[in-house]
């Protein structure tokens, strides 16, 4: 009686290992994508909060603004404005980095608006942060 495995048995083992590896890689990639999106949404919330703090200096200008966002008086600033006024600390090279695609967010527009006696801020996120 011969000892060892047949070619078919070895191929089956290789096939099973390949399938398991493919599933594991897919799970890791999905996990990484979700983490980057969660970090991005946290960054958006921090930027909106910093924008609200920034806008408190301009509350009168905001209330009297002739520009409207969803029917409320508004002002528009950029992330670079927040960095320049030290409302938020940059990541590197005086930039806020988007964790999803590693691009600069400094030119992102932030809408500050006065609604129901409160200052609010909004950054367009293309529905990435809708459930956050």
Strand % is: 15-25%
- Parts with pLDDT < 50 across at least 5 consecutive residues: none
Radius of gyration: 25 Å
Main beta sheet: strand number and arrangement? 4 strands, antiparallel
**Total strand count, please?**
4
Please, how many helices? 3
Helix-and-strand structural type: alpha+beta
Helix share, percent: 40-55%
What overall form do the CA principal axes indicate? elongated
Total individual domains? 1
| Mean pLDDT, all residues | 90
Order of helices and strands: HHEEHEE
Give the SSE layout.
Layout (H helix, E strand, L loop, with lengths): L6 H49 L3 H5 L4 E2 L2 E7 H6 L24 E7 L2 E5 L10
Structure description:
With 132 residues, the chain is an alpha+beta fold. The chain has one domain. The protein is 45% helix and 16% strand. The chain has three helices and four strands; from the N terminus they run ααββαββ. A four-stranded antiparallel beta sheet has the order 1-2-3-4. A hairpin with a 2-residue loop joins strand 3 and strand 4. The model has no long low-confidence stretch (mean pLDDT 90).
């Amino acid at each position: 009686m011969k000892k060892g495995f047949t070619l078919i048995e070895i191929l089956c083992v290789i096939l099973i290992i390949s399938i398991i590896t493919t599933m594991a890689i897919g799970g890791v990639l999905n996990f990484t994508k979700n983490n980057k999106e969660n970090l991005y949404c946290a960054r958006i919330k921090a930027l909106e909060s910093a924008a609200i703090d920034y806008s408190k200096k301009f509350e009168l200008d905001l209330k009297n603004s002739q520009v409207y966002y969803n029917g409320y008086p508004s002002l528009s600033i950029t992330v670079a404005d927040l960095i320049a006024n030290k409302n938020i600390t940059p990541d590197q090279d005086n930039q806020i980095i988007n964790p999803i695609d590693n691009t600069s967010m400094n030119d992102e527009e932030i809408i500050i608006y006065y609604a129901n006696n409160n200052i609010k801020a909004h950054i367009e996120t293309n529905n990435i942060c809708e459930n956050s």
